């Protein structure tokens, strides 16, 4: 299984997504497969797309992508993960972002 990389937010309670969660919950448990909530979402620039877990293909790409974030930088982390199920590119992304149906933080 190939390793991917996810940018997430870490706080005292654990890990959570940057934006959209699953059923209103942004927390992501470590070591468990979690299915994304399939719905139309908008990333703020009028581009709608099917939701999925946002992952990046390498740590180097994730580190470069992380520099684009200006808010909460002190809380953002890059985590290793595995993905499975349906996987598709985020078509309008300006980086090689993939969207995945299932994610497991490792």
Structure in words:
- This protein has one domain.
- The protein is built from one helix and eight strands; from the N terminus they run ββββββαββ.
- It has one helix at 59-66, and strands spanning 4-11, 14-16, 34-35, 40-42, 48-50, 53-55, 76-89, 98-105.
- Strands 1, 2, 3, 6, 7 and 8 form a six-stranded antiparallel β-sheet that branches. Strands 4-5 form a two-stranded antiparallel ribbon.
- The termini are close together.
- The model has no long low-confidence stretch (mean pLDDT 91).
| Number of separate helices | 1
Number of domains as seen in the coordinates = 1
User: How many strands in all?
Assistant: 8
What number is the mean pLDDT? 91
Shape: globular
Termini Cα gap: 12 Å
Rg to the nearest angstrom? Answer: 13 Å
| Strand fraction | 35-45%
Oligomer: single chain
Helical content (DSSP H or I, runs of 4+) = under 10%
Class per helix and strand makeup: mainly beta
Low-pLDDT segments: none
State the order of secondary-structure elements, H for helix, E for strand. EEEEEEHEE
- Main sheet: strands, sense, barrel: 6 strands, antiparallel
């Amino acid at each position: 299984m190939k390793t991917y990389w996810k940018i997430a937010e870490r706080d005292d309670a654990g890990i959570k997504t940057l934006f959209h969660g699953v059923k209103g919950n942004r927390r992501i448990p470590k070591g468990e497969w979690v299915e994304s909530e399939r719905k139309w979402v908008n990333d703020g620039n009028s581009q709608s797309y099917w939701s999925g877990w946002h992952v990046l293909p390498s740590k180097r790409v994730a580190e470069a992508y992380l520099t684009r974030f200006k808010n909460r930088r002190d809380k953002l982390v890059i985590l290793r993960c595995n993905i499975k199920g349906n996987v598709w590119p985020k078509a309008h992304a300006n980086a090689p972002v993939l969207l995945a149906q299932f994610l497991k933080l490792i």
